[in-house]
């Protein structure tokens, strides 16, 4: 992922195949299916279009199934100790008094906390992404990885030990965490994923939580170990900003098939990926030209996704877009947004 985008102009797309349905509000009855092959996951929080009131608008879009908040980008800002740092663009206020005293890397994000709850009420899981480009996301030991999982649980999950400094307030419980490490250091990430699962199992309400991962498309990924990915429910492979396997590269098709094989054997159980099932693989794409190399217009995206569907991969989960708001604003001359094209292509 890219932490910041300097140009937020809506990308122009010329198309020949227009989705057959129009953009509409989410129907009143919706049930998220983590095992589906036609889900659309979108990131939110790190483009110039990010606003404090924009999250709910994205969740109300009928195309969208999963929203990932970007980013928690500092694991241990204070020399391997303390609390993490977050950055959701302009959506948060400065740190509260309690946060300033105890955890200066955190922010007061209660302004859009009710939107998170509204998204969840619509049936849309809301995950927190850990990492991004230019992030400090390394572990130095198994103990540190386990401790960080517990910290996340208390700040963003159902843990109750840090109520005074929780960025979204005491009542918001996120639906899981997205591993987007991009620092080329895989150490202790498998331990971290295992530790997250143990934290999830503490929830007395038995809420379903998810882990996702966002590797780059070259294999092997240099920052997220395959063992950690196999503990996830979702793996959205970034087929952009990687010339050898971008959507519009000659290596795309083979890379998709190689990733499907890599992820085929899940290793977790319980509140986790079923043994032998493996995570669902998502085709990750950029939703606007300024996000970097590998961008294709909506019609072209539909064509590439049609070829992926023709492979009949049993672990295909859908599409991931960076970023959701930019995708909603990227509308062509037919009135179809990039989100429309992505969702229609995997139906």
UniProtKB/TrEMBL annotation:
Instruction: Indicate the segments forming the GH18 domain, all copies.
Output: 38-347
Q: Does the keyword Acetylation apply?
A: no
**Which family does the entry's similarity section mention?**
Belongs to the glycosyl hydrolase 18 family.
GO biological process: one example: polysaccharide catabolic process
Keywords in alphabetical order, please: Carbohydrate metabolism, Chitin degradation, Glycosidase, Hydrolase, Polysaccharide degradation
Q: What is this enzyme's class at the first EC digit?
A: hydrolase
E.C. no: 3.2.1.14
What is the catalytic activity of this protein? Random endo-hydrolysis of N-acetyl-beta-D-glucosaminide (1->4)-beta-linkages in chitin and chitodextrins
> Can you name this protein?
chitinase
């Amino acid at each position: 992922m890219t932490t910041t985008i300097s140009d937020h102009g809506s990308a122009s797309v010329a198309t020949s195949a227009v989705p057959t349905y129009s953009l509409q509000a989410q129907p009143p009855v919706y049930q998220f299916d983590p095992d589906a092959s036609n889900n659309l996951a979108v990131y939110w929080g790190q483009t110039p279009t990010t606003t404090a009131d924009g999250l709910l608008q994205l969740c109300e879009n009928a195309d969208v199934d999963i929203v990932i908040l970007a980013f928690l980008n500092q694991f241990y800002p204070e020399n391997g100790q303390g609390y993490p740092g977050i950055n959701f663009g302009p959506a948060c206020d400065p740190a509260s008094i309690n946060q300033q005293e105890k955890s200066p890397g955190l922010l007061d994000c209660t302004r859009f906390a009710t939107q998170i709850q509204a998204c969840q009420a619509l049936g849309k899981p809301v995950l927190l992404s850990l990492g991004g480009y230019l992030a400090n996301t390394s572990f130095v030991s198994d103990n540190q990885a386990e401790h960080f999982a517990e910290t996340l649980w208390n700040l963003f999950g159902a843990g109750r030990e840090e109520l005074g400094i929780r960025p979204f307030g005491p009542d918001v419980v996120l639906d899981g965490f997205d591993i987007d490490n991009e620092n080329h250091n895989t150490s202790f990430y498998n331990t971290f994923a295992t530790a997250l699962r143990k934290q999830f199992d503490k929830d007395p309400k038995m809420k379903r939580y998810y882990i996702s991962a966002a590797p780059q498309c070259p294999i092997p990924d240099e920052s997220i170990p395959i063992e950690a990915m196999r503990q996830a429910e979702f793996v959205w492979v970034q087929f952009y900003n990687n010339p050898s396997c971008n959507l519009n590269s000659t290596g795309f098709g083979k890379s998709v098939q190689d990733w499907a094989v890599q992820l085929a054997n899940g290793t977790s159980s319980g509140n986790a990926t079923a043994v032998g099932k493996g995570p669902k693989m998502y085709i990750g794409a950029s939703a606007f030209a300024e996000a970097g190399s590998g961008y294709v217009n909506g019609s072209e995206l539909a064509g590439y996704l049609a070829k992926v569907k023709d492979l009949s991969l049993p672990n295909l989960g859908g599409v991931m877009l960076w970023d959701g708001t930019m995708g909603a604003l990227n509308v062509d001359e037919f009135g179809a947004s990039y989100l429309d094209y992505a969702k229609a292509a995997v139906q």
